[in-house]
Amino acid sequence: MIEVGLSSGLYEKPMGNGKLLILALVLWGLTGCGAIADRFTTGGQISHIEAQQAGQSIRLEGQVTQQAAFLEGGAYEVEDSSGRIWVLTTGELPAVGDRLTIQGEIVYEDIGIEGMGEVYIRELERQSR
């Protein structure tokens, strides 16, 4: 997602409708041309996910091995041929054994001890296979 702040003090004059339209078209073109494609990792293996990739989008395929229900949503662990990772969801939990394709965001949570933290996926979209 690209956010453009027009009230950040960078512009002294309000932007006219024509300039705003041009800006919108340029930003739309950038997303279509892959100019921001470096933010996206497609078809990844779990073992290749690292904390430095936090904020990037990723698509994973795997099988649900565990789940944990929360008051709203929950988390489930997905395994592929390279490893396992937890996926946080606000939706209904998949059943253990389900095979899924997941589109999500890589998240890193620092636990307060230097160099220690947890990497997980925040689910954006899910499809059963």
Outline:
The chain is mainly beta.
What does this structure look like?
- By secondary structure, the chain is mainly beta.
- The chain folds into two domains: 1-35; 39-128, Nucleic acid-binding proteins (OB fold (Dihydrolipoamide Acetyltransferase, E2P)), CATH 2.40.50.140.
- It is built from one helix and six strands.
- It has a five-stranded mixed beta barrel.
- A hairpin with a 2-residue loop joins β3 and β4 (83-89).
- The longest helix has 17 residues, at 17-33.
- It is globular and about 35 Å long.
State the end-to-end CA separation: 27 Å
Determine the mean pLDDT: 76
Order of secondary-structure elements:
HEEEEEE
Tell how many strands the DSSP assignment holds: 6
| CA-based shape | globular
Indicate the proportion of strand residues: 35-45%
Name the helicity range. Answer: 10-25%
Which value, in Å, is the CA radius of gyration? 19 Å
Work out the helix count.
Answer: 1
CATH structural architecture of the largest domain: Beta Barrel
The main sheet comes to: 5 strands, mixed, barrel
Helical/strand content category: mainly beta
Domain unit count: 2
Low-confidence stretches: 1-15, 17-41
- Strand arrangement within the widest β-sheet reads 2-3-4-6-5
Which superfamily, in CATH terms, is the homologous superfamily of the largest domain?
Nucleic acid-binding proteins
CATH C-level class of the largest domain is Mainly Beta
What CATH calls the topology of the largest domain is OB fold (Dihydrolipoamide Acetyltransferase, E2P)
